[in-house]
Amino acid sequence: MRVLAALSGGVDSAVAAARAVEAGHDVVGVHMALSRTPAATRAGARGCCSIEDASDARWAAEILGIPFYVWDLSQEFTERVVADFLAEYRAGRTPNPCVRCNERIKFDALLERARALGFDAVATGHYARLRGGAAAGRPGSTQGLELRRAADGAKDQSYVLAVSGGTGLSRALFPLGDAPSKSAVRAEAERRGLPVADKPDSYDICFVADGDTRGFLARSLGTEPGTMVSPEGEVLGTHEGYFGFTVGQRRGLGLTRPAPDGRPRYVLQTRPAANEVVVGPAELLSRSTVAGDGLVLLAEPEELGAALGWRGVSVQVRAHGRAVGADVVIDPEASTLSAELHEPVRGIAAGQSLVVYASAPPGDGDQVLAQATIT
């Protein structure tokens, strides 16, 4: 197959490209330039996609002996990821920009260009397993397509990939899905002579160069002084904008008066219309039901009487969270999902991704059944 290897400049994508070459594919490397911000350099950034990453990607491609290009996707990234991030916070939700980047850039904009140029598939350094589609030599076919957790549960990225859906995933290759650990991938990079073997992992939001998300939101959305209230409506303090807070947050509330019982307060809810932030005790953060929309189905649902869904599965409600047992009901026509959790979960935030896995508790290689955005 003709494979476009997305080279971020890190060790994972470099080893993934090397494995694609070794598998006999006709591989071309491409680095996605997502930022035109001068601060997006290794010295000033904590996330991925820095300016220097393009040089590291080019170096890896030269060692692998594959053609290499840099594609400017900064406009698409700004319009499809950054603008969505700001709009979601403005609406009082807490988005996951990595989920949107995978959906709208790596498996939308990148795949669009790859297909227009005659490529069969895109290979990335994600940690997840795929069955069917390009992974089985049938790019574009969703028949028998399955997305599963990676062999290395600590690095598994199926949570952020689920939103990409069958169409995008059918043309994806994840050569690192069976890698036993990140240390093993680094050792493989060293054996192959790849210069990024010891490069640190990226973290934080790539377009927030200094890691100060609240500051980025204030600079982008301005300030809107409002009140911080108790669940009963008592005014406890003020804030500079509800969009600077997220459900479950404890630090940075700026309250000078402690709770009557002396216990810490947490953000329970933001109310955009009233510009209020509701704070209260930890026990009010727990939820046993979750609803979502924008349903993405990656497996056929079961019949549950008059409804559709799955019993005895598990759901994950944040990227690095623990999956919990649940019963899930879906409405394909309305593109919605509701989950009854087998145990309460704290700090569930609207705007985050909810991913349904095939068993409870999750086991190695669990299949992804569905995804939705928490409402």
TrEMBL record:
Pfam families the UniProt entry points to: tRNA_Me_trans, tRNA_Me_trans_C, tRNA_Me_trans_M
Residues holding ATP: A6, L7, S8, G9, G10, V11, D12, S13, M32, G125
Catalytic residues (positions): C101, C206
Gene3D superfamilies associated with the record: Adenine nucleotide alpha hydrolases-like domains (2.30.30.280), HUPs (3.40.50.620), Translation factors (2.40.30.10)
Class in the EC hierarchy, top level: transferase
Region: Interaction with tRNA, residue numbers: 155-157
Entry EC number(s): 2.8.1.13
Localisation per UniProt entry: Cytoplasm
Site keyed Interaction with tRNA: positions: H126, Q352
Protein keywords: ATP-binding, Cytoplasm, Disulfide bond, Nucleotide-binding, RNA-binding, Transferase, tRNA processing, tRNA-binding
GO MF annotation terms: ATP binding; tRNA binding; tRNA-uridine 2-sulfurtransferase activity
Catalytic activity as recorded in UniProt: S-sulfanyl-L-cysteinyl-[protein] + uridine(34) in tRNA + AH2 + ATP = 2-thiouridine(34) in tRNA + L-cysteinyl-[protein] + A + AMP + diphosphate + H(+)
HAMAP family: tRNA_thiouridyl_MnmA
Similarity comment: family membership: Belongs to the MnmA/TRMU family.
Protein name: tRNA-specific 2-thiouridylase MnmA
Species per Swiss-Prot/TrEMBL record: Actinomyces howellii
